[in-house]
Amino acid sequence: MPIPSVSHSHRRRLISVAVASCLSASAMSAMAQATDEVQQLNEVSVLGTAEDEVKQSLGSSVITSEDIDKRPPANDISELVRTQPGVNLTGNSSSGQYGNNRQIDLRGMGPENTLILIDGKPVLSREGVRMGRSGERDTRGDSNWVPAESIERIEVIRGPAAARYGSGAAGGVVNIITKKPGDKFTGSVTAYADFPQHGEEQDTRRLGFNLSGPVAKDLSFRVYGNVAKTSADEPGLNAAASGVDLTDSTVPPAGREGVRNRDINGLLRWDLTPEQVLEFEAGFSRQGNIYAGERPISASGNDMIAELANAGAETNSTIRRTASVTHRGRWGKNSSRTLLQYEGTDRRYAPTGLAGSGEGTINSTDKVKSELENTFFQSELNTPLALAGKNQVVTWGVEARHQSLDDPFAVTQSASSGGGVPGLGNDRDGSSSATSWALYLEDNIEMTNTLILTPGVRFDHHDDFGNNWSPSLNASWYLSDTISLKGGIARAFKAPNLYQSNPNYLYYTMGNGCPSNYPNQGGGCYIQGNDNLKAETSVNKEIGIAFNGATGLDASLTYFHNDYKNKIHADMFDQGSPASSGNSRIFRWSNAAKAVVQGFEGNLNVPLLGQHGDKLKLINNFTYMIENKNKTTDQPLSIIPKYTINSTLDWQIDPQWSAQLTATFYGKQEPRSLTQGGANATGDALNERGSYHLFGLATQYKLNKNLRANVGVKNLFDKRLFRESVSSGAGAATYNEPGRAYYLSLTASF
């Protein structure tokens, strides 16, 4: 029970110490040693770091390993992350292209503004996937490189709290924390299978293992591996909904592609001293798709698309290799972390048409290759001190990144059609690179017993796009032991990617893609990479109130507002008068006018039985979008539900047996009102996707201390949605929601 005489300030200190000790414990080789660390922290720590503080903001939530055990994803963790407040799965724009390749979208800022981290290290493999004119990529994103059973927790950080992480975090951050070695030899094997009720929908089979323990004194290891196959939806799945029959030369809009996964990762940990830890880590992953007929533009497909879809061919594969070294240390009252990571990504893909009616459609089975390399360095020092009578923890940090890309196919589009692009030949270099570095300073200050301020500033320098300042201020004001006000404001940014900024990269369209206000003159329209782009920026704000009751009753309500500026896009109708050469018009990737994203999110957790609801509790969160649009064109940034409500009734039947009833309610989704060419959309292109809801049922049983079973039903009432068009020709109906499926998961451990 809580002790009434304990001040909120002291309780706050205990929370901060618990967070710090949890992070330290993952770096300790024995529980006794971890206990010594906690005692030492109690002596030297008053507050947590600024990073600890932002993880307690209203815009932060955590998915624990227990949550993953109770609700295992079929394969990709995005299935779990989407159940958090402020989170949806969308494409990179509102075009509807690659409609089923949906990725994590935080607060409507789009997947390109969601930064994925693994143990604090950025994951950038999707940057090696060619970006089309609409901003879409043919990729599943970067959320499927770590098997679910190898994850200790997932931290989802939204809004101003995420600005500290630099470029690409304007929407937020998803930090995947992996399981670390302990002082005992342990291991587990997990087998998962699901069984869709409708045989034309995809199923999954996966097998993974974890192994960890001591090797010698002060030396321990951890290794995990995974093999998985998620089949593709049948090519004819969306025939009835779209009105396009599957034939030898036509393919309906594609359902969900499948994927084959192979993952292996090893970590060796060396406790140099009780205060100094060194970790060496290396990993290898391969993902290959199972083709379902996906393409971004052509409505009817062609012979090759039909042949590849019917065969379930592999049309693209991605190999990711990583190597890193991390040092964590304590220097008296100070603590530090330094890491260096190399990430190499090779992507092999079937080339697609770049012009005319074949835009985006596969035209050859001979694979081409892109190579992306990322090197990342980060070092930070946390210093507890007292200034002007205020207890505080100062964080000093430095980062450096280098990124290089070589994609020869991306520059094979002819530069000489219809008059051509002046000064740009057909023999162009497909390589590009960028280097950036950053300095950041944060301070977590206990202003009073009830007020915590966390100011920060980050300076980034990009060798192509100059300097960027990212100031931030977060605050927590504790009105009582149960009620707190929290808010923040921060400036965030995203540098242009290596496709957008490469002037050798061309997209070309011969007709429908030319804008209505500058129609085709007979030579088509180009979009050219632009090395004079500005970085995208946003000013993210949030304010809210939280109630944390002593009985386990928790509630919060948060208002968020993001002012988005210089969004990079290629809507040609919004660029002003283009350059001309012969019969060709020449556009470029450009910075859009202002955009705005605002809405509410919150949670309500109600204990029903037991202490703090440990027998039965109702867990709820919601997101409500007020607006999400380009302020000049009035077009949505992405197609997302007007509201999302996630509810779970969690029942701990006895110590061995638990069950959950889950429900998700989605509001209506509105499409673009303008075509990509700028004309007014008509007919089916204006169709909304109405509100709908999904239910699920899961139960877990511990057969003994070494064997656990999990059985469940997804989409309990078989609510199915179909994709009606390849792009926005059917409005918002550009993705599938699969029907009822049953799953079984077995975990054996020692």
From TrEMBL:
<keyword id="KW-0410">Iron transport</keyword>
<keyword id="KW-0813">Transport</keyword>
<keyword id="KW-0732">Signal</keyword>
<feature type="domain" description="TonB-dependent receptor plug">
    <location>
        <begin position="60"/>
        <end position="173"/>
    </location>
</feature>
<dbReference type="InterPro" id="IPR010917">
    <property type="entry name" value="TonB_rcpt_CS"/>
</dbReference>
<keyword id="KW-0675">Receptor</keyword>
<dbReference type="GO" id="GO:0009279">
    <property type="term" value="C:cell outer membrane"/>
</dbReference>
<feature type="domain" description="TonB-dependent receptor-like beta-barrel">
    <location>
        <begin position="307"/>
        <end position="716"/>
    </location>
</feature>
<dbReference type="InterPro" id="IPR036942">
    <property type="entry name" value="Beta-barrel_TonB_sf"/>
</dbReference>
<protein>
    <submittedName>
        <fullName>TonB-dependent siderophore receptor</fullName>
    </submittedName>
</protein>
<keyword id="KW-0406">Ion transport</keyword>
<dbReference type="GO" id="GO:0015344">
    <property type="term" value="F:siderophore uptake transmembrane transporter activity"/>
</dbReference>
<dbReference type="InterPro" id="IPR010105">
    <property type="entry name" value="TonB_sidphr_rcpt"/>
</dbReference>
<dbReference type="InterPro" id="IPR037066">
    <property type="entry name" value="Plug_dom_sf"/>
</dbReference>
<dbReference type="Pfam" id="PF00593">
    <property type="entry name" value="TonB_dep_Rec_b-barrel"/>
</dbReference>
<comment type="similarity">
    <text>Belongs to the TonB-dependent receptor family.</text>
</comment>
<feature type="short sequence motif" description="TonB C-terminal box">
    <location>
        <begin position="733"/>
        <end position="750"/>
    </location>
</feature>
<dbReference type="InterPro" id="IPR000531">
    <property type="entry name" value="Beta-barrel_TonB"/>
</dbReference>
<dbReference type="InterPro" id="IPR012910">
    <property type="entry name" value="Plug_dom"/>
</dbReference>
<feature type="signal peptide">
    <location>
        <begin position="1"/>
        <end position="32"/>
    </location>
</feature>
<keyword id="KW-0812">Transmembrane</keyword>
<dbReference type="InterPro" id="IPR058134">
    <property type="entry name" value="PirA/FepA/PfeA"/>
</dbReference>
<keyword id="KW-1134">Transmembrane beta strand</keyword>
<keyword id="KW-0408">Iron</keyword>
<dbReference type="GO" id="GO:0044718">
    <property type="term" value="P:siderophore transmembrane transport"/>
</dbReference>
<keyword id="KW-0798">TonB box</keyword>
<keyword id="KW-0998">Cell outer membrane</keyword>
<dbReference type="GO" id="GO:0038023">
    <property type="term" value="F:signaling receptor activity"/>
</dbReference>
<keyword id="KW-0472">Membrane</keyword>
<dbReference type="InterPro" id="IPR039426">
    <property type="entry name" value="TonB-dep_rcpt-like"/>
</dbReference>
<dbReference type="Pfam" id="PF07715">
    <property type="entry name" value="Plug"/>
</dbReference>
